[in-house]
Design a protein that fits this description.
GO terms for molecular function: oxidoreductase activity, acting on the CH-OH group of donors, NAD or NADP as acceptor. The protein has 328 residues and is of the alpha/beta class. The protein has helices at residues 12-23, 35-44, 63-67, 89-108, 150-168, 193-203, 219-228, 249-259, 272-278, 283-288, 301-307, 314-327, and strands spanning 3-7, 27-32, 51-54, 72-75, 113-117, 173-179, 181-183, 213-218, 238-242, 245-248. Helix 4 packs parallel to helix 5, helix 6 packs across helix 12 and helix 8 (249-259) crosses helix 12.
Length: 328
């Protein structure tokens, strides 16, 4: 039986991957950072036989031993903040070094198959591409471009590090899955940054929508792609955008409003000039401002063709998020 080593197993995406792996009959060794996170997963999957490893992205200890006996590395662990950090290296360093730490451990343990969770953020900001042109997997975000935030740079540099690693170690077959903003149902009450955004849209915490668009996907599709890629020859050596559609923030709010007209979703977009002024004083506005006048759309056509499925519509994904938020 194929055994999968799943890093960051208590994350929003990883929990859905773990469920899919177990449903497909894979053996799983899950890495977590604490006994609390282990108990969280045991509570979600009480009937599963799970192995655990306690690891830290920033520490070498235990990685090689933890991967012994595994056939596949599924690396999902990476920091994902709600706001821009003062020092970009707070995100970049653990993302890049953590990816290389996992890849080196996989090599030492004899693992030949790696599935890496990257992001559309590693795709949609290539500096020499026209700002309003959509992107696909042939594009790479330019990490040194002034418009690129710390998270976008961290995902780009971490993914590049992984591809550079397998170029030097061709016995390892790498696939990267590059999701947009990930919505959909939460499996418990500890959900990620994307669902926090939905909560803000629902409750009036975003009174005026930022005048930008966002590429989005349902977490269930992201999990499916990770697991299906394990044995698909056509996915080896390839990157795949997990992208159902691209919508403006105001549209996302309108989707929620049609589902529940009592929600305090934004009624209009903030003027671009106002957001640029706010960026002088607000870290959140400063992170958003460089995206004004830029199309962040990424095509998911390659994934649909290769995996043979259709993405769950964004509206369904965001409503599933809202239902999860309301259950809390």
């Amino acid at each position: 039986m194929t055994k999968v080593f799943l890093t960051g197993a208590s994350g929003f995406i990883a929990k859905h991957i773990l469920r899919e792996l177990l449903e497909k009959g894979y053996d799983v060794r899950a890495s977590v950072r604490s006994e609390k996170r282990k108990a969280e997963l045991e509570g979600l999957f009480p009937d599963a036989t799970l192995e655990f490893a306690f690891l830290d992205l920033n520490e070498d200890a235990g990685w090689v031993d933890a991967m012994q006996g595994c056939d596949v590395l599924m690396h999902t662990a990476s920091p994902f903040p709600m706001s821009e950090p003062k020092d970009p290296q707070e995100l970049i360093k653990p993302a890049v070094q953590g990816t290389l730490r996992a890849m080196n451990a996989a090599k030492a343990a004899g693992i030949k198959r790696v599935i890496l969770t990257s992001s559309c953020a590693a795709i949609y900001k290539q500096s020499d591409k026209p700002k309003m042109a959509p992107s696909d997997e042939t594009y790479w975000t330019s990490p040194d471009d002034p418009s690129v935030g710390a998270y976008e740079a961290s995902k780009t540099l971490a993914e590049k590090a992984a591809w550079d690693f397998v170029a030097e170690n061709p016995e390892i077959a790498l696939t990267t899955i590059n999701p947009g903003a990930v919505f959909g149902p939460a499996m418990d009450d500890r959900f990620g940054t994307s669902l926090e955004l939905v909560e803000q849209l629902m409750t009036g915490k975003i009174p005026m929508a930022p005048p930008i668009n966002m590429v989005a996907v349902d977490v269930r599709d992201v999990a499916h792609m990770h697991v299906a890629a394990i044995d698909m020859e056509a996915t080896k050596g390839e990157r795949f955008a997990a992208a159902s559609g691209t919508h403006r923030f105001l549209e996302l709010g309108q989707m929620l409003k049609t589902w529940d007209d009592t929600l305090k979703t934004p009624k209009s977009e903030a003027p671009a000039w106002l957001l640029r002024i706010m960026s002088l004083f607000s870290a959140d506005a400063k992170a958003i401002a460089p995206n004004i006048g830029r199309n962040l759309a990424v095509s998911g056509a390659k994934a649909e063709k290769t995996f043979g499925f259709s993405f769950i519509p964004v509206k369904d994904a965001i409503i599933a998020s809202a239902e999860s938020v309301q259950r809390q």
